[in-house]
Structures are given as structure tokens and as C-alpha cells.
Design brief:
This protein is mainly β. The chain is globular, with a radius of gyration of 13 Å.
């Protein structure tokens, strides 16, 4: 089992920055990929960014490239999502997830954290 806890609930204005954290615990994390997904009101959940614990390779959806950065701190077992130049379209519940590969089927999910960007 892998437990994931997100933090970084935020109400920010357009143009602001916010960092989300995902604290992971449980089974050997080095074998997992860690992804961030988001779900806006009335929309399907979508992939945002992903990273491999081992090697640190990353991937991003096009709409956040150049604005968001995913990283991990192996010593702290924490994955971060640094979000810059936020806009109202980024408003969503953000979920941390763990699976065998980036942008693949996820086996474990956090409960999500709400990010609201006002115009």
C-alpha cells in the first residue's frame, strides 16, 4: 500500500504562484511514477504532470508546460508541483497519484486539494 496526502490548498489571483505537496508513505516508492491530475468543475479528471522517483524523468500536459514544474525530494518522500502564472482555467481539485509509469494507470490516489484562481 502507498498512502498519499496532498497539501497546499489555495485561493490565489491570476498571475500568482502556488506550490502543492504530496507526502508519500508505504511500499518501496522508487519503483513508482508519481503523477498530478486535476479535475475542474463539470469536467473529467486530466493528467497534469508526472515524474519517476528513480531517475526523475518528467512529463507535462501541454497547457502547463513552461508554467508548472514537478519535482521530488527522495529524502522527504514528497513530490511537489510548483505552479506559476496561474490563471482561472487552472481552478480544479488537484490529485496526487502513484502508478507503474507516468501517464499510465494509477494504483494509488490522494484525496485531492482544491486550488481556486480568481481573475
Amino acid at each position: 500500500q502507498v498512502q498519499l496526502v496532498e497539501s497546499g490548498v489555495g485561493l490565489v489571483q491570476a498571475g500568482d504562484s502556488l506550490r502543492l505537496s504530496c507526502a508519500a508513505s508505504g511500499r518501496t516508492l522508487s519503483r513508482y511514477a508519481m503523477d498530478w491530475f486535476r479535475q475542474a468543475p463539470g469536467q473529467e479528471r486530466e493528467f497534469v504532470a508526472g515524474i519517476y522517483w528513480s531517475g526523475g524523468g518528467t512529463a507535462y500536459t501541454d497547457s502547463v508546460k513552461g508554467r508548472f514544474t514537478i519535482s521530488r525530494d527522495s529524502a522527504e518522500n514528497t513530490v511537489y508541483l510548483q505552479m506559476n502564472s496561474l490563471n482561472p482555467e487552472d481552478t480544479a481539485v488537484y490529485y496526487c497519484a502513484a502508478g507503474s509509469r507516468v501517464y499510465g494507470a494509477m494504483n494509488y490516489w490522494g484525496k485531492g486539494t482544491l486550488v481556486t484562481v480568481s481573475s
